[in-house]
Amino acid sequence: MKQNETSGRQLQLAEERTRKEEDDRKAAQEDAKKQRRHKWFSHVIAVISLAAAVVFGLLTL
């Protein structure tokens, strides 16, 4: 009976580890998606700033 309880506990721990690994993987994917989005927005802002600087430079000629 004791061996059955031990193997049941080991199975439960393995399932918890698997669940935690899946949660960690999903969190990492979400984080990567947010970082890509942030990088994209940063590039857009840089391009807009550069365009504004060029327009301002042309207007002051």
Automatic annotation (TrEMBL):
Residue ranges crossing the lipid bilayer per the database entry: 40-59
Region (Disordered): 1-37
Biased composition (Polar residues): 1-10
Keywords per UniProt: Membrane, Transmembrane, Transmembrane helix
Ranges of Basic and acidic residues composition bias in the record: 14-33
Protein name in UniProt: Uncharacterized protein
Organism: Streptomonospora mangrovi
